[in-house]
Design brief:
- The chain has 33 helices and 34 strands.
- The longest helix has 29 residues.
- It starts with 11 loop residues before the first helix and ends with a helix.
- It binds one RNA strand of 77 nucleotides through strand 8, strand 12, helix 10, strand 30 and helix 20.
Length: 1024
Amino acid sequence: MDNKEISKAYEPKGVEDSVYKKWEESGFFNPDNLPGKREKPFTISMPPPNATGILHIGHAEFITIQDLVIRFQRLLGKKALWLPGTDHAAIATQTKVEKILKDKEGRSRHDLGREEFLKRVKDYVKNSQHVIRGQLKKMGSSCDWSRERYTLDDGLTLAVNTAFVQMYNDGLIYRGTRIVNWCPNCASTLADDEVEYLEQKGKFYYIKYGPFVIATTRPETKLGDTGAAVNPGDKRYQSYIGQELEVNLGKVKIHIKVIADESVDPNFGTGVVGVTPAHSLIDFDMASKNNLPVIQVIGPDGKMTNNAGPYAGLPVAECRKLFVNDLEKAGLISKIEEVDNNLSICYRCEHVIEPLISKQWFINVNKPSKKLGGKTIKEKALEVVKDGEIEIIPERFVKTYYHWLENLRDWCISRQLWFGHRIPVWYRKPRTENKELGTESSKFKVQSSKLKTIGFHESVVPQVLAGKTKTYRLKDHKFKVGDVLAFENSQTTEIFGQGEINKIVETTVGQIPLDDPAHGATYKKVEDLIKALKFHYPNREVTKDTQVFVYSYKFTPVQNSKTEEIYVGLTPPKGEGWQQDPDTLDTWFSSGLWTFSTLGWPKMTKDLKTFHPTSLMETGYDILFFWVARMIIMSTYFMSEVPFRQVYLHGMVRDEKGRKMSKSLDNAIDPLDMIAKYGADATRLSLVIGNTPGNDLNISEARIAGYRNFVNKLWNISRYILMKAGPAKLVEKQPLPKTLADRWILAELNTLIDFTSVNLEKYNFSVVGEKIYEFTWSKLADWYVEVSKSEAQGSGPTPSTMLRVPRAKSRGRAQGNSENILLYVLQSLLKLWHPFTPFVTEVIWAKLNPSAMLMVQAWPKAKGKVDKKAIKDFELIQNIITAIRNLRAESKLPPAKRLKVFIVSAKNAGLIKTEVDAIKHLARLEDVVVAVKGKKPDKSLSAVISGAEIYLPVSGMIDVGQEVKRLSLEAKRVEDFIIHLEKKLENKQFLERAPKEIIEVEREKLIINKENLEKINQQLKTLK
RNA sequence: GGGCAACUAGCUCAGUUGGUUAGAGCGCCUCGUUUACACCGAGGAGGUCAUAGGUUCGACUCCUAUGUUGCCCACCA
């Protein structure tokens, strides 16, 4: 390679694409093709970007970190797999395509119909994926494209359906009627954590409400009230409890029942709450307990329903205006306050969420599963982190993870979207001629009418269905062992099964074992049990001594077949009249399977055996709950193993002032622009150095430009070395050092290699990046390269020893050795840098060794013990040179002016004498005189300048304070410290070096004790 | 309301289990046409480590309060 062709400045633009192409064509992204014996796998599942297209700087961040890790592991010799893919991102994608459709064609998805619309989405996604792939490549991603997956492709769809069916058969997936978060704009349900809150000033309306005044921020929902609730202890309203009232709300009259409920805070508002069961979770619970009817006044379209009387058909906001107006006219508004209010909004489209009552599919997070050895999925997901099977970095997120899981409610997985995995459930309306069903149903009905009935609160029914075989009752039902009972949902009066009494125990509340799994719900404290009982018996006193009946039973559920048949399976059922559920599954249901579905599950493939559990999950802390927790749930359930060993959570990327990047602020940094301007390597460095796990990273263009400068520096160092070393060659073995500088740079390199190897394993990218940066610029470029120049110069009229170790003289030839060292150091350095800056390092490597790629070289190893003496000696020379430069600048001596310097040193005279030539050259001196102790003209520690003569004392610069500190560092107890200090005091050299004041103190304390130590410290302070 | 984090140089941030003179990048000031690099080199200025107590021979680091900021969770009708 003709090194004259190397350009003065590194130009990434031209070379990056061709380098990537070379990598790709090598096939080494695929672990199966990697050279050498590679036994240990290392796997990263790429968090699949949404298939909506453009990658932003946040993606660039995760790409950089993951690529860094995987390249490092590949260099270490692992079977490194980084599996890429995309997520269909149901809501996000559907919303996006709908928007495009509306903007471009003015049509809605309903205008197109399901099939045509999905075709449009498919085309859109295909294009996006293409764009994403291109962007990933621009960043240098060394992921295995041959294994790329998409959450909606056939394999993953099979995985999703299989998962659903298995969970359903295990009783973990059920269909239920609940209050759900409904986004009228997306026309779909949302999971609890997909709801965001917006702090707002809102109005708090006080409305005359029959005999009460109630306060509300949402007056329009009052049209759906079926109750008014007060605290049972609130004396003001005692007499009303239980009454049924008609309430005049202007144009509308509603009928309510006054109930008592603990959850009502007598001190908030007026102490009376209008109960709106259809549109509030809490109200729904209260209504269930008190058998209040449920009236839905807001529809899924965000408009008032027919139940809203004269307001039917109005959007919620308009209804509110009109309704408040009407109330005012009727004199029913007593006052309006301004309050801070949290508005629930959709995390995708930011429209207001309406809590609605609706029939949806849920995953039961509290049901023990045989697959999990009787544990619930929640417990299992907690356990694997508690037991350390999964490590979360940084650790503080462990706590948030626990908190989230512990409070997790059943997960609503059905979405009313078109785009996504269709729920693998089919329904068939019963036909009268379906005799078998008819008889089944009627047989049960007849039977149940004759049977004794036992009621279960709706919230308990799922537990019974889930295998609860015990119930605690305050009431004596007068059952006998052997009685066959009809099990009734006491809210809906629906019969959901039958059972037989096995055993009856009469006891007291205090005697009940708290953790009886047969009961379904278990308790930590008696108080919790009492609380639970009070919930079911709101009007009874409950204490430890209250009498209680424990009924054990055998239970058989009955499918509610009078409405429809349900079929759950991988393929459509045979027979006529089956209709598939129109809904689709929550995106996170499929992405929860990501680590194993992408490797072939439900088939037990070779890949699945080799690469699962994956090694590292690297993702943003913002999706710890959405995604990470769900992957843990899904993997522990389906695979019976963790999805990954470690989780590394990175922070968000923000602008230079720490603000979120957004279109409106116009502060977004587009990684592709930055790559075009400064190169991918510089962009990568800016995302990794200065970035610590879990913390947000502020980034600016100036920062990226700074790293571009660095990449250029590395380029030019290499250019210099290649030019100096003549024909490029590999120097694989560490050359023998011949000069002090050689020993020093090798010692520094070996230290760096160790540091890098250790800290990259611990994902301390930033600190490693800084260290290699420092080595490259401040050590290699600023010192070693400069020294090597003077060595080259030494071929002039006065051959120079240039930092040559004395011993080397006798060995003869020292000239030219620095070239081998330079090549060796550069080659090792390129390997260290490669995970960070793959492009430029690969380009330089190609000039050294065109036949092999840097990407698959072996990670460097430190050779032998680090030569600490070399580091210390070299630093002394450095300090002398720096001190001279400093003095020259301070005394405004022009650089051209040659100086005479007397270096005064007692201890290091020998060393300094040997290196005089180097000092002369690097500090641009006329003459250096090394003086021994005694000739020193001034005993002060500062140098003396007289004319062009500098007296620079070097010995005696050691601070005794350091020694003391070092000692106490080594000692763990005070006693040890004292012993160490005493030993040190016996050392004459120490005493010689110590300033007089300190020695006085130390002499004085013939017996060293705590007080004396304090004195020493004080002495040290005053000395400073 | 509960929790988590941050507060260090003009700006953005490091600082690993307490221990040399608290570091880096950018910015700033002075000087420099040394053939690897001006995307550079040499030197420099700049910090009561948010505040107040405490533990310790010794605290940026540990403990307790307080203040400010950010985030997460819950949510009162």
